[in-house]
Amino acid sequence: MIDLYYWTTPNGHKITLFLEESGLPYKIFPVNIGKGEQFQPEFLQIAPNNRIPAIVDHAPADGGEPVSVFESGAILLYLADKTGQFIPGALRDRVQALQWLFWQMGGLGPMAGQNHHFSNYAVEKIPYAVDRYVRETGRLYKVLDHRLAGREFIADEYSIADMACYPWIVPHERQGQDLNDFPNVKRWFDAIRARPATIRAYDRAGQINPAPAAHDEAARKILFGQDAATVK
What we know:
Strand content: 5-15%
Number of domains: 2
Shape: globular
Radius of gyration: 18 Å
CATH topology of the largest domain: Glutaredoxin
CATH superfamily of the largest domain: Glutaredoxin
Largest sheet: 4 strands, mixed
CATH class of the largest domain: Alpha Beta
Order of helices and strands: EHEHEEHHHHHHH
Structural class: alpha+beta
Number of strands: 4
Strand order of the largest sheet: 2-1-3-4
């Protein structure tokens, strides 16, 4: 059994995508980040960066005590190695999947995240910041579009690289991007969206957070007002 500490964000969706695809039994423990539940001491024991997602594996491969993992990319890699699914076995193919997983972790996610913040959440709209991150997000979409030319998925076979990237493309309209400008990404996106496991994963999100609310002032302070003093 996998305990998944989760909220309905792109990084959270990565893990439900994997779990639904793999068939691993799991239980979701919602962590409402707008209410500050990520600062609960018991959550910080497994996720010291006070961010979702995190997991606890009660049946690790070594047969020992439960293993906890935080950071979505590390979780995807851990689960892929645990199950032998969605990561290539051959050296060169594995490298392809891993480098695109890290591309998402270091590029697409952070840049799209800043895009979301300055375009949608920032109280003060700063034209330079909005333009900077919308343009960089578009550049990254184009990189992905080139990668997908002539191949069905990022590492040829469906893998954790696709699961990492897809949730960050879902809000493309909010990022100021038109998928018609990126035909290979659009084809790939539509194929993943239609997968039964993807449908199940996003259905779970709708059950947990059926009516995502706009952030009120209290939630904004929790989400965007953190500094060194909030690390306990």
